[in-house]
Write a structure and sequence with these properties.
Strand content: 25-35%
CATH class of the largest domain: Alpha Beta
Strand order of the largest sheet: 6-7-8-3-9-10
Distance between the termini: 28 Å
Largest sheet: 6 strands, mixed
CATH superfamily of the largest domain: P-loop containing nucleotide triphosphate hydrolases
Helix content: 10-25%
Shape: globular
Order of helices and strands: EEEHEEEHHHEHEHEEHHEEEEEEEEEE
Length: 378
């Protein structure tokens, strides 16, 4: 959207991280990262275990001291400010709920420690419990709650102090798949109602795509791409991001023709010429004839059929169904093509039927539009 603050050069970031690094002895955990996060964002830092994302979050919270660089929150430098003086609260993966206290006493704990008047504590706790739909469970102890309810207790306790920024470290990791999916939307609704800036650390790509306004993909202590979920998924800037963020098919090849935004790639792996149309605003892409590249395509962009498509503009492959999996709403196919490469295709099951249109060992044709081809040089 045109009014997104990250697309507005005049917009002032709410959180600004400049050249932030953290070393543990000879180990580089975070390496000179820069990041701007805007007020009211639900921002996700995504990466595999050990990439530095939790260390970065702990530096924002004040639990780790940076080796170099600085952090600014709402115009105030926080680099040397102790955790208890920062306008930040952190929700841990373990939730860290006090087992001997009721739900309402857990939520009230931080306010009482600050010495707020009893009437204000009672009012704010009641408001927060209503927001997270725990009012009826206020008198229960943690051992009488489900995982999702515990997660909401921890969230309420973190938010009741009205921080400017809430940091969440793998907030849904302890929940089962169905509860995690439902809680994602609850978290988004609460964040939207309160307008608090959320920074979420996660290793789960689907969770990041569902929750976040923007995502920073992290690898070996550095950000390798920052963008909206759609930008990172549809237009990855490197093989690492393309492979890490969702499922993708990749074919090594050589550029044989460049005509503006139209590129042809000869690929022995694919056994054909792959056609690609790059984004119109990116015609000056630096791709030249003779460049070694990877052409990539997402499984859902590929059409699978029993007969070839009558369209010379589409990339087409022929192969045999090696494996298939039926998930109800969609089917996944693994197709072995002539080069022995395996191509994964996902197809939405839009019709209600008991028999499959494509079966094991069927000879099939795969095709996709040039705009679905992603050309990766890095």
């Amino acid at each position: 959207m045109a009014n997104d603050p990250w697309d507005d050069p005049s917009a002032e970031p709410f959180i600004r991280i400049e050249g932030l690094s953290k070393w543990f002895g000879d180990v580089k955990a975070v390496n000179a990262v820069d990041l701007d996060i805007y007020k009211g964002e639900l921002f996700a830092i995504l990466g595999s275990s050990g990439c530095g994302k939790s260390t970065l979050l702990r530096m924002l919270a004040g639990f780790e001291v940076p080796t170099s660089g600085r952090m600014i929150i709402d115009g105030v430098e926080m680099t040397d400010v102790p955790p208890y003086e920062r306008p930040v609260n952190m929700m841990f993966q373990s939730y860290a709920v006090f087992p001997h206290m009721t739900v309402e006493k857990n939520v009230a704990y931080g306010l009482k420690k600050e010495g707020l008047p009893k009437r204000e504590v009672v009012t704010r706790v009641a408001e927060m419990l209503e927001l997270v739909q725990l009012s009826e469970l206020a008198k229960r102890k943690p051992d009488q709650l489900s995982g999702g309810q515990l997660q909401r207790v921890a969230l309420a306790r973190a938010l009741v102090k009205r921080p400017k920024v809430l940091l969440l470290d793998e907030p849904l990791a302890a929940l089962d798949k169905r509860l995690r999916e439902r809680t994602q939307f609850e978290l988004m609704n609460i964040q939207d109602k309160l307008g608090v800036t959320f920074v979420v650390v996660t290793h789960d790509q689907e969770e990041a795509m569902t929750l976040a306004t923007r995502i920073a993909v992290m690898d070996e202590g550095e950000f390798v791409q920052i963008g909206t979920p759609a930008e990172v998924y549809e237009f990855p800037k490197s093989r690492f991001v393309a492979d890490f963020f969702g499922t993708i098919n990749m074919f090594a090849g050589t550029v044989t023709e460049v005509n503006g935004s139209h590129v042809l790639i000869e690929s022995a792996e694919a056994g054909t010429v792959i056609r690609a149309t790059l984004r119109s605003e990116n015609v000056d892409h630096g791709i030249k004839v003779g460049n070694k590249v990877h052409a990539a395509v997402r499984p859902e962009k590929i059409v699978i059929s029993k007969s070839p498509q009558n369209d010379e503009e589409r990339t087409q492959l022929k192969g045999t169904v090696l494996d298939l999996a039926y998930y109800g709403n969609l089917s996944i196919y693994r197709i072995k093509i002539a080069s022995a490469a395996i191509v994964q295709v996902s197809m939405q099951n839009t019709e209600r039927r008991s028999e499959r249109a494509v079966e094991w060992d069927d000879e099939v044709y795969l095709s996709w539009d040039p705009a679905s081809s992603i050309v990766l040089t890095a």
